[in-house]
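Troubleshooting: if your tokenizer reports a length mismatch, compare your output against this known-good record of 213 residues.
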Amino acid sequence: MTITVLIADDHPIVRDGLRGILSAEPAGGEEGFEVLGEAADGAEAVTLAERLRPAVVLMDLRMPGTDGVTAISELARLGNPARVLVLTTYDTDSDVLPAIEAGATGYLLKDAPREELFRAVRAAARGQAVLSPAVAGRLMGRMREPAREPLSQRELEVLALVARGSSNKETAKKLFISEATVKTHLIHVYAKLGVKDRAAAVAVAFERGLLGS
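Known-good structure output:
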């Protein structure tokens, strides 16, 4: 029995490497793999998944054009039965959480050993959730964190200007508020993000996807 796979990654060398690894003869009587096709971006991945109907899609996240999360969401909207196993370099909250929320069955990092990749693809094909140890640890850590109040729209505006290098005085001028009000907003931002200074606030905001990428 073989598990059919579609590879979605914008790097040809990565696609070639994955195809070669998955095409090798499995050991110990385990299921083998058949690579049905390759996609260079999310839109192509959706098109091929609809046409080829693979059991598992190995999906990179950051691709030009249509990204991986958008492709995962579209496959879910279409009711495509393929299980999506994210295979990426990134394990930040702003990458992991949207992918899982979009419907990914698993999340694996590209530095995983080949045997771990094989186990993950087989588990995904069975519909079992698969998370790399680093990602699982990150998610557990978030679950243990006390829930924090989200940033208000004004706090996000202040933080976005700070991230661009604006001083409190410049931020106040751009938002037509007082400098004291800017300082108050930043105090609230620090408390909500669990940080102590501007640099840490900006770093955490980017990591959580609050300020885009």
